[in-house]
Amino acid sequence: MRGLILIGAAALMLPTLAQAQQRIAPETWITAADYPPISGDGIIALDYAVTPEGRVAACSVRYATVQKEIAETACPRLMERARYVPASDTSGKPVSGRDTIVISWVEGVLRIPGTSDYGGAVPANNPQLWATDDDYPRGMPKSKQLDVPMTLIIGSDGRIASCLTPLDFSHPAIAAHTCRLMVRRARFQMPLDTQGKPLPTQGRTVVHWRGIAK
């Protein structure tokens, strides 16, 4: 048996912006029709700028575990299709920002990006390493599936300052274990204010624990 962990996040409004950037129909940006089936699991993480006009610019592959030819097709499609409601400052003027998405394959099936939205904070390390097969919760049956929703308070240093789970979550010990992993391992490149200083932010994320037979 091995545990498969998928991570998705939705960020909340940045504290010093009048409006945080918002994705427009991200499920249409990358589709299953864009890629042939691949063997096994894989990911492509893309990092890019969002212009004040809501377009994608300066897209690059941050890391990938699929063939180079497949990874290199992602940025052109994103720059062609992706649209944003851009962030705006307190005067209502649109401002530039940054974003990242992770395209993933699970057992060869493409998972369309839509929930991996950090609202300007960009992962500084590989999210697939924040919770790994070796971290599968002790005492949890390998056949069981469990989603752990969390609210993350991310400091200006790019580290998680606080991880909160719902008070009524059915498996508090597993929630605490998952939060500890995130606090210990997750690192972010933070958005900057007009003086170039990093801003704290907060977001919501869900870690999906899956038991899969080899």
Properties at a glance:
4-stranded antiparallel β-sheet, 214 residues, single chain, mainly beta
Write the layout of secondary structure elements.
Blueprint: E1 2-11, E2 22-24, E3 42-50, E4 56-64, H1 68-71, H2 74-81, E5 83-85, E6 87-88, E7 94-95, E8 97-106, E9 109-111, E10 122-123, E11 145-154, E12 160-164, H3 172-185, E13 188-189, E14 201-212
Antiparallel strand pairs: 1-14, 2-5, 3-4, 3-8, 6-7, 8-9, 10-13, 11-12, 11-14
Low-confidence stretches: 1-18
The percent range for helix content is 10-25%
Structural class: mainly beta
Summed up, the helix count is 3
For the largest beta-sheet, the strand count, sense and barrel status come to:
4 strands, antiparallel
Number of strands: 14
Alpha carbon gyration radius: 17 Å
Please give the order of strands in the largest beta sheet: 1-14-11-12
| Count of the domains | 1
Shape: globular
What's the pLDDT, averaged over the residues? Answer: 78
Q: What separation lies between the terminal Cα atoms?
A: 5 Å
Order of helices and strands: EEEEHHEEEEEEEEHEE
What can be said about this structure in brief?
Helices cover 12% and strands 38% of the residues.
Question: How does this model look, in words?
Answer:
This protein has one domain. The strands form five sheets. A four-stranded antiparallel β-sheet has the order 1-14-11-12, with helices on one face. The chain is mostly beta strands and 214 residues long. The termini are close together. The protein has three helices and 14 strands.
